[in-house]
Amino acid sequence: SAEPPRPVQVWPDAFAARYRAAGYWRNETFGAWLRERATAHPDRLAVVGGSQRWTYAELDRRASALAAGFLGAGLRQGDRVLVHLPNIPDFIAVVMGLFRAGLIPVYALPAHRITEIEHFARGSGARAYIAAATHAGFDYAALALELQGRLPRVAHVWIAARDATVQSPAGPFPCLDDLYATASADVPASVSQGRDVAFLQISGGSTGLSKLIPRTHDDYIYTLRESARICGLDEHAVFLGALPIAHNFPMSSPGFLGTLYAGGRVVLCPSPDPESAFELVERERVTVTSLVPPLLLQWLDRAPASGRDLGSLRVIQVGGAKLSAEIARRVRPVLGATLQQVFGMAEGLVNYTRLDDPDALIIHTQGRPISPDDEILILDDEGRPVEPGQAGHLLTRGPYTIRAYHDNPSANARSFTEDGYYRTGDVVRMTPEGYLEVQGRAGDHINRAGEKISAEEIEDHLLSHPQVFDAAVVSVPDEYLGERSCAFVIPKGERPRPADLKRWIRARGIADFKVPDQVVFVERFASTAALKISRKALRAQLRAQLLEQE
Ligand code: J2J
Asked: Start and end of every AMP-binding enzyme C-terminal domain (predicted)?
């Protein structure tokens, strides 16, 4: 079979030249800057998690050992490697080791299951899979076995914990701890160039399955540098990774990578529950963290009675889904920190409110772009610019927004204009100050507490059930989650029980957050009679019907 294509990301020459001339792209690489930091301040703490406390020198050494181990096992520069790890220090050593070796991480969320992992492995042509043995009650080593059974191309598996007992047919899976022990004296700081693809991030997926997003060293490091500056990070910064750090937000805005880039310390919280986070904030004197709105709600709710000293917190970033002004207002009085709203996307564009902005902007807007070269278009349904201050579709291009997904011509044709703008699918308006307010989405995904769910993907799973004739999945406003998912189902023959349908979906091997929160049975969809009604129109109608009933 043909070799799968290598990931690339190319901007037209004139744009690339402009971004280099402006100093955005500096031909820096991940492997090289980590070595620079480790040389400049070897003994400063870089990563804290569980019982581990790694200095910059230690992180650098581990990255080199892993790089040597991965290449020694037979992986070749440019190979893709699925990274399926929770918030543990190994996550950071692994990605830094992959960067150093010129290998390309493909990030999966801990919640993803075999169906999604297989999709990412196929789409990227991955040759290796790295996971924890078990985490939060799930057996990732068993998933590894299943994956290799389905896709023999994934020839290499590494498991994070030494006590992994799962045997592959060829014996126990090797573990990272064995690689850390490898001698690695002759690993170069970096074998990559700035323009090379550093990793594949996954898209929120508005239609169908997630797409793969190739980001280069040049473009991503630019966002780290600027995000760290905008968020006031320096060597004194202590960043708490509370959301799963495979998410683009806690990874790069400025996230754990931006914190390390700035020479600060990353503290990893392996569980999302606020009490674990508060304990770490107090113990490690955390200064900044990133949260999605529902998690912020929990923090606001539980911080006062937690008995923890949270006085070290300077900045609470909130993004991933719309934050209401009501809640935004409570951040400073309750948590004693400055709120920063963050409106970003794994495809590129990130907007921040600035720390010294007036309260009106911090509370009511989702910020303004990182770069003076982020180009923003707000268009009406016919593709014409809206009047100033009016809402419209957000399109963007710039020095860190991709021009194409990996190996996906049909998605590229849909998601990018001919002159290279990315269609975000978001509906926004711009304030006179040039700040964006997110109004909603044009596309049909569900933004469930910051996790994006494609309606189409879940409908396909429902349709595979023998007692389902047709299905439409819609988002419903939810006080706590922001949005929850509701599946309208036309049964075929005997009506299945909602719980059985949910179990069916789960058994398809997909992330738990994608299982419909609510199932409503209907006899027919009113307008499917008019044969050509779009799914989009149908979903809108069903959503309206549901809201009316409530
Ligand atoms: C409303 N909607 C928002 C916000 C994202 C930083 C922050 C977030 C993400 C992210 C990210 C929103 N208000 N503040 O990658 O680097 C919705 C929009 C957007 C989509 C992108 C980062 N912040 N959104 O959430 O790729 O609909 O990235 O297009 O997961 O989340 O989702 P994702």
From this structure: 457-530
Q: Are residues 498 and 422 in the same domain?
A: no
Q: State how far the Cα of 75 lies from the Cα of 129, in Å rounded to an integer.
A: 12
* Residue 455 and residue 445 in contact, taking contact as beta carbons nearer than 8 Å: yes
Q: Return all residues near 425 (Cβ < 8 A) that are at least 6 apart.
A: 206, 393, 441, 442, 443, 445
Q: What are the angstrom distances between the C-alpha of 523 and each of 415, 468, 495?
A: 35, 11, 10
pLDDT tens-digit profile of 189-238? 889 999 999 999 999 856 678 899 999 999 999 999 999 999 999 999 99
Task: Indicate if ligand 1 lies below 6 Å from the C-beta of 496.
Answer: no
Q: With 50 as the cut, is the pLDDT of residue 186 above it?
A: yes
Mean pLDDT of 167-181: 80
**Among 426, 441, 456, where does a domain finish?**
441
Q: How far is the CA of 69 from the centre of ligand 1 (A)?
A: 35
Residue 18 in this model has a pLDDT that exceeds 80: yes
Q: How confident is the model at residue 532 (pLDDT cuts 50, 70, 90)?
A: low
Report the CATH number that the domain containing residue 500 is assigned in CATH.
3.30.300.30
- The runs of H, that is alpha helices, within 383-438 are 409-415
Give residue 79 CA to ligand 1 midpoint distance, Å: 28
Give the global pTM.
Answer: 0.95
CA–CA separation, 417 and 379 (whole Å): 13
Asked if residue 419 and residue 275 are part of one domain, the reply reads yes
Ligand 1, closest atom to CA 366?
14
Query: CA 391, CA 388: separation in Å to the nearest integer?
Result: 9
